[in-house]
Amino acid sequence: MNIVVIEDEIRTRRGIIKLLPKINENYHVIGEANDGLEGFNIIEKTKPQVVITDIKMPGLNGLEMLKKLNESEIKVKMIIITAYSEFEFAKKAISVGVTDYLLKPITVEDLKNVFEKIEKDIDREIEKESYQRINIMTFEQMIIEIIEGKMKIDKVYEIYSDKIKEDNFNYVMVVKLINNTIERYNLLKECIDNLFKHIENLKYILIEYEYNNEILILFASKDSEVNIEKELNKKLFNLFRDNGFENCIVAGLSKLISIDELASKVKEINRNLKWSLLLKNDVIVTENAISSICAKTFKYPKEIEQLIMAAIGEQDYIKLSNLINKFLSYCKSGEYHPDSIIDGVDCFVISIINIMKDINYELFIKINNERILEKVKNSTSWCEIEDILKNIINIVSELNNKDSKASYSLIVYKTINKIINDYAECISLENIAASLNVTPEYLSTLFYKEVGTNFTSYLKEYRINKSKELLVSSNLKIGEIAKRVGYNDPKYFCKVFKSVTGVCAGKYVTIHK
Fold it and tell me: 423-429 long-range contacts, Cβ below 8 Å, gap at least 24?
């Protein structure tokens, strides 16, 4: 089942995305968005079966997005996320096309129950649509429908049982093209077709899966899996190199006991493609190749992250580029499990996004609109990860653009950076001014002029925002959270929290956790 998640709180969004495949490995998040407008564009492009969306978001809210989808005749199952205070609003939303709703805080059981109901609805719709379309579809089209969960395998048997028995396909290969264009995709398809034509005693069909930038090859061979793997490793990657596809192809192979396994095997191959991060560029990803790797757990380089934060604050983009290359080298330095590499890159990117939110909201929105976190999650090669980090450097470098409406002087950037790095410590305007070799009066005036708020208010707001994250995402006591965000007196922290948010810390937890 293909799913898009739309939620303006990054931590909530990432939490849902990580939870879904744990509930069911066939739940695939194919897109994520920060607001309704970005969400609409992603839904329009990816055509998911299910959308999970918050009601209240900047720009276009959840129900306005649904209305826009209905006007565009885009049909999706929509689940809305709502707080208790919006409960009546959520019930009303059901009457205008929302499939179901989830109340905050979202539990695993709630999510599971909602998706079980939706699965049953989808199965009934698939059954109905299949009978209407089945007689005009080719075998290749049906295969794609099965892989996407839009058709059941028994429908293919009804029409193509003789073909299935005759061809007896016992292998499936997935070839994924990175940095795709239509011309390159067509050239790749032609190259693969020519290769398989010249392999003796081999029946095959090529299936275009352009949505995923993939080509699927179903083939039948009496040769052993080891020999097939060896022959294709040699021939396939030589072909790629000769035709300019070096370092931009990943491929996976799996044996089929029967065509009934096809959908699950294609999904398994796609999950395993990330192992190409540990394999050589000219090796097909197979269970045999994966089993030969002794993967280690990735230890996140916090010290590099801190240096990156400082480089952004100092607008030192040469240093930033060098540090990102250092981070990449560290990621490649050991045989780390690909899941932990991708989680590490994800954490690294989130840290940059968070500092951008505080320094330049306009560029923060731009990074979100690039769907960078989604691209990280779907990465299967170092080429993709490198491109993602280069893109971040380019966006962050725009801070240096004098025409940027939200640009700050270097002194203010360094002050903000000091707050971000040391908010949990005892910091003051006077101390920071001394470290920057300016007077407190000068710094105070400059900070207010450029940021639009005074230093004390900014620091207070930042600390309270950090405390809100900890209140929702951890089980720490309020006194411990107070210390972690720079308040030694829990009572004073609670007083400040209520003055900023309008509710006491305990009630905030009840509402949002």
Answer: 423/459, 423/462, 423/463, 423/466, 423/485, 423/486, 424/483, 424/484, 424/485, 424/486, 425/486, 426/486, 427/459, 427/486, 429/455, 429/456
Which pLDDT band holds residue 399 (cuts at 50, 70, 90)? low
Distance CA 292, CA 305 (A): 32
Spell out the alpha helix ranges (H) of 60-198: 62-71, 87-94, 108-133, 139-147, 153-167, 182-197
DSSP state of 82: E
| Torsion angles phi and psi, residue 24, rounded to 5 | -155, 125
Residue 271 vs residues 249, 251, 253: alpha-carbon distances, Å: 15, 12, 12
Instruction: Say if CB 391 and CB 370 are below 8 A apart.
Output: yes
**Do both 159 and 286 map to the same domain?**
yes
Question: What does the pLDDT look like over 197-245, one tens digit per residue?
Answer: 888 888 899 999 877 789 999 999 888 888 888 889 888 888 888 888 8
The CA distance from 273 to 41, in Å, is 27
Note the pLDDT of residue 284: 93
Q: Which domain holds residue 164?
A: 138-291
Q: Is residue 297 part of a domain?
A: no
pTM for this entry: 0.59
Handedness of CA 155, 157, 158, 159 (dihedral sign): positive
Cis peptide leading into residue 21 (ω within 30°): no
Is position 385 within any domain?
yes
Work out the pLDDT band at 328, boundaries 50, 70, 90: very high
Q: Would you state the structure tokens that stand for residue 458, as one six-digit string?
A: 């900014």
CA-nearest of 443, 486, 483 to 462 is 486
Q: State yes or no: pLDDT of 84 exceeds 60.
A: no
User: 4, 39 in Cβ contact below 8 A?
Assistant: yes
Predicted confidence (pLDDT) at residue 404 exceeds the cutoff of 50: no
Q: How far is CA 125 from the centre of its chain?
A: 28
The per-residue pLDDT for 344 is 92
CATH number for 161:
3.30.70.270
Which residues make Cβ contacts (< 8 Å) with residue 420, sequence separation at least 6?
A: 309, 313, 355, 358, 462
Is 55 contained in some domain?
yes
